[in-house]
Specification:
This protein is α/β, with parallel strands linked by helices and about 575 residues long. It has helices spanning about 1-10, 20-30, 50-65, 85-95, 110-125, 135-140, 160-170, 220-230, 245-255, 280-285, 300-305, 310-320, 330-345, 560-570; strands at about 35-40, 70-75, 105, 130, 180-185, 200, 215-220, 235-240, 260-265, 350, 350-355, 355-360, 370-375, 385-390, 395, 415-420, 425-435, 440-450, 465, 470, 475-480, 510-515, 530, 535-540, 550-555. Among the domains are: about 1-265, Rossmann fold (3-Layer(aba) Sandwich); about 355-470, Ribosomal Protein L25, Chain P, CATH 2.40.240. The longest helix is centred in the first third of the chain and has 16 residues, at about 50-65. It binds one RNA strand of 74 nucleotides through helix 6, strand 6, helix 8, helix 13 and strand 19.
Length: about 575
RNA sequence: UCGGGGAUCGUCCAACGGCAGGACUACGGCCUUUGGAGCCGUCUAUCCAGGUUCGAAUCCUGGUCCCCGAGCCA
């Protein structure tokens, strides 16, 4: 009984998405003998982003849910845009996300021979022909949505001639663009994709896997269904823009009498304050708006990873946003919620002062040092405790002191007593200012020795607890603060403005060169994640080295004080 | 204009003829040695107009709005 309740708690019953409903139905009808086989088919022409993560979670997740299989297949049918670098990053990213294709790593280019044979078969059936029209002429013959197209003058070539010409195409006897192989369907179809679509184009270009073996390359529509068919994919899940292509997908497979997978389309992910277009992301990288594909501001998987995201949080997010056909733009706050949820559970707590303000404890002995006990993770008792050094001169956060505080400011002000976390109650006696600028450069305080550890024997309370670092013991480090890449929710959506780059947030990166961290951080390694108490979650950047530690702020903690300030500012307006 | 899709809280997803529900956000409160976390609560939605039905987000009819489609890209 108890067990049952716990199970329910862990796996709250959520209704199946529309794709899983289709699969449930297929299973009921014993379609494909109950086999479920999906695939994730990236084109190796860019880095994966959070939108791909949705698709990866869907495809691999579906296979897992139904005890089926999911292949990783590179759709490398266009050698002019594709590179080996991308297949490396893509495989890394998928693995990091936590998915495994076992021995089922495939490339569309592995099937070029089979595809060629299939094309010959279609020609022999009188359903494909070699066309001599130029690209421009093909466009002119295609017509428009309102006007039917015209047949190509080469449409009625004999099967024999088509076979010979296609063979000559393959052998490289024609220059790029001179001829194409086209399916013979219907130039008057209301679906433009059915107006004798091109199956093969001539491209004298070296392919990253097949080298110079081929100079004709298959088009997506022709290739994709065959890839699915060859691999025995049962459910071929893709995005909405391929809906119009489904009749063609079906036509090829039906004409060939080949195994026929079912194409199902869903709406791709959009996220607020970022862009998902590969082309635009490439532009940001190439024109130096960001520092590479893995810049922590990028929505790429590698960027998120470097930023400190956990794969668990991305998977939870993908699971939560669901799958539907309605186009949408998901609030990035939802992603951030799952990030914080996961980070809160797993991150060791440490203290780090980002914007240091020197504090001298007047009544603390000059040379005394003591080690105080701090809890490593209140969410995880097994994480234990550690010792942190305390001494006469400390740093606290600049924003934790105000000489003339507004209402509801609970932190340090002249005359007020607060707690230093795990240490003592201190009271501010004096603020030293720079004579010229008036900036507060140093605080003088007294401490109450009876409050060691942070509790007062007389039960008196303080309104706030501050984090701090002993000046003598602190590690100096660089911390990089990231904010959203764009200033507006939907930078790609505003067609009046035109260029999405106008919406770039000019302060999406702030570098703090002189932060002070507690000494335990000295052993932190690349990728290690921490919560800097009261400040947020941080991770060690790969730029970090023995000379200089570099941390990225993954995300702030939820900040109630910030909200109060915003409200106050609003009310004063 | 033709073809293909889609319209449910601010956002995302459910409800498949029978009390419109969940998550996030926002806003209150409790608690707190992180203004963190946790806990409790509140607000807010069926594109419009007709019809069928005891009963419609769901079925029918007619509108409106949005997205995709005329690459030898995927």
């Amino acid at each position: 009984m108890t067990e049952k309740i716990e199970n329910n708690k862990e796996k709250p019953e959520r209704s199946a998405n529309f794709i899983h409903q289709i699969i449930d139905e297929d299973l009921k009808n014993n379609k494909n003998d109950g086999r479920i086989h999906t695939r994730f088919p990236p084109e190796p022409n860019g880095y994966l982003h959070i939108g791909h993560a949705k698709s990866i979670c869907l495809n691999f997740g579906t296979a897992k849910k139904y005890n089926g299989l999911c292949n990783l297949r590179f759709d490398d049918t266009n050698p002019s845009k594709e590179e080996e670098e991308y297949v490396k990053s893509i495989t890394e990213d998928i693995r990091w996300l936590g998915f495994d294709w076992e021995d089922r790593l495939y490339f569309a280019s592995d099937y070029f021979d089979k595809m060629y044979e299939y094309a010959v078969q279609l020609i022999k059936k009188g359903k494909a022909y070699v066309c001599d029209l130029s690209a421009e002429e093909v466009r002119e013959h295609r017509g428009t949505p309102l006007i039917a197209g015209e047949n190509s003058p080469y449409r009625e070539r004999s099967i024999k001639e088509n076979l010979e010409l296609f063979e000559c195409m393959r052998r490289g006897e024609f220059p790029d663009g001179a001829r194409t192989l086209r399916a013979k369907i219907d130039m008057a179809s209301s679906n433009l994709n059915m107006r004798d679509p091109v199956m093969y184009r001539i491209l004298h270009e070296s392919h990253h896997r097949t080298g110079d073996k081929w100079c004709i390359y298959p088009m997506y529509d022709w290739a994709h269904g065959l890839e699915d068919s060859i691999e025995g994919i049962t459910h071929s899940i893709c995005t909405l823009e391929f809906e119009d292509h489904r009749p063609l997908y079906d036509w090829f497979l039906d004409e060939l009498g080949a195994y026929h997978s079912q194409q199902i389309e869903f709406a791709r992910l959009n996220l607020t304050y970022t862009i998902m277009s590969k082309r635009k992301l490439l532009e940001l990288v190439e024109k130096g708006y960001v520092n590479g594909w893995d810049d922590p501001r990028m929505p790429t998987i590698s960027g998120l990873r470097r930023r400190g995201y956990t794969s668990e949080s991305i998977r939870n997010f993908a699971d939560r946003i669901g799958v539907a056909k309605r186009e949408s733009i998901v609030d990035v706050a939802l992603l951030e919620f799952y990030l914080r949820e996961d980070l809160n559970k797993r991150s060791p707590r440490v203290m780090g002062v980002l914007r240091p303000l020197k504090v001298v404890i007047n009544n603390y002995p000059e040379d005394k040092e003591e080690y105080l006990t701090a809890i490593n993770n209140p969410e995880d008792p097994s994480a234990g405790t550690r010792k942190i050094p305390f001494s006469k001169v400390l740093y606290i956060e600049k924003t934790d002191f105000m000489e003339n505080p507004p209402k509801k400011f609970y932190r340090l002000t002249p005359g007020r007593e607060v707690r230093l976390r795990y240490a003592y109650f201190i009271t501010c006696t004096d603020a030293v200012k720079d004579k010229r600028t008036g900036e507060i450069i140093e605080l003088h305080c007294t401490y109450d020795p009876a409050t060691k550890g942070g509790d007062a024997p007389d039960r008196r309370k303080v309104k706030s607890t501050l984090h701090w670092v002993s000046a003598k013991h602190a590690i100096e480090a660089e911390v990089r603060l990231y904010d959203r890449l764009f200033k507006v929710e939907n930078p790609a959506g505003d067609k009046d403005i035109g260029d999405y780059k106008k919406f770039l947030n000019p302060i999406s990166l702030e570098i703090l060169p002189r932060c002070f961290l507690e000494p335990s951080l000295i052993s932190a390694k690349h990728g290690d994640r921490f919560q800097f108490e009261r400040m947020g979650y941080f991770c060690v950047d790969p730029d970090s080295n023995n000379q200089r530690m570099v941390f990225n702020r993954t995300i702030t903690l939820r900040d109630t004080w910030e909200r109060i300030q915003k409200k106050q500012a609003k009310n004063n307006r």
